[in-house]
Design brief:
The chain has 310 residues and is mostly helical. It has 13 helices and four strands.
Length: 310
């Protein structure tokens, strides 16, 4: 901000009414930032060009986009994508919590097992893992329950258990658990150790320490990172089509192969649905972060500054 005085101030005079009127008459002008206006103008021009290209380019075939957007075949793939994401996120988070606790265990063997799991499944590409699980019946034609290295009491046909849907959920969950473990572990170790020492000095049981002290504070660190990972999982379901399971992208790919002249609008249909789903997850992340940040930060969000929420 810059101040333009009406005349040079006389500091020898007291704060008389005339002096106060003189101070009030001064104009406070904002600093001029020409480069900010130039950058804003360039951004507006680029956005206008992008919007014009979307509307006027006939290759997008917006009439075909409107036709396919709510077709039952697309909605069926969308529901399957949501099912895969929900189940894989649940099983992956539960597995990640267990792996994080094992990684922080006092047993060297358990720590090594957890570290090895994370190392292996973060190293294997998801598409390779899904292909391997889809062909695991070639290695094990039957599965059994019984005494380890002893007789089996119950036997199952692997083809009956490992359906395409089960393979997709299993592969996504195994991959998700490896990343969720590190997210949960980072949230736990972010809590000040002095609080645990104080809780132990008060005689609180270990489970109560984790439930009432560690988890509420660790959640503030876990939520942003895990929702970001959840968005990656949502988009990662697009690779399960290689197992012959037609989720959203699989349906779009199949329809594109049978309607070769409408590949672009079909891809736009899938893109818009993914944008809608990730936007919903981002809104969910905002409200959850706001809930767990109560009493910790007083900074106002963008929506609060705009007056949308209080």
């Amino acid at each position: 901000m810059s101040v333009i005085p009406s005349r040079a101030p006389d500091r020898s005079r007291p704060d008389t009414p005339d002096r106060l009127d003189e101070l009030a008459a001064r104009k406070v002008l904002p600093l001029r930032r020409p480069w900010r206006w130039i950058a804003s103008a360039i951004a507006v021009v680029l956005l206008a060009q992008f919007g014009h290209a979307l509307v006027t380019n006939p290759v997008f075939q917006w009439d075909a986009f409107g036709y396919w957007f709510f077709r039952p075949v697309i909605l069926r793939g969308l529901v399957l994508t949501l099912e895969l994401t929900g189940l894989s996120a649940l099983f992956g988070l539960l597995g990640g919590i267990v792996l994080a606790l094992l990684r922080m265990s006092g047993s060297p063997l358990l720590r090594a097992v957890s570290w090895g799991y994370v190392w292996i499944f973060r190293s294997i590409p998801l598409i390779v893992l899904l292909l391997f699980l889809a062909n695991v019946t070639a290695l094990y034609s039957s599965l059994s329950l019984g005494i380890p290295f002893g007789p089996a009491f119950i036997r199952f046909n692997a083809n009956d258990i490992l359906s395409f849907f089960a393979v997709a959920v299993l592969g996504l969950s195994l991959n998700e658990a490896a990343y969720a473990a590190e997210i949960v572990r980072s949230g736990i170790i972010s809590v000040d150790p002095g609080q645990l020492e104080a809780a132990a000095a008060l005689g609180l049981p270990k489970t109560r320490q984790y439930r009432r002290i560690i988890l509420p504070q660790a959640t503030r660190t876990i939520i942003p990172a895990y929702v970001n990972q959840l968005i990656g999982l949502l988009k990662g379901t697009s690779v399960v089509y290689i197992t012959s399971l037609l989720e959203l992208f699989g349906e779009v790919e199949t329809l594109g192969s049978t309607n070769s002249g409408q590949i672009i609008p079909l891809l736009v249909v899938g893109t818009v649905w993914y944008i809608i789903l990730t936007s919903i997850l981002s809104i969910f992340q905002f409200w959850v972060e706001r809930h767990f940040a109560k009493g910790v930060t007083r900074s106002r969000s963008a929506l609060q500054r705009l007056g949308v929420v209080r």
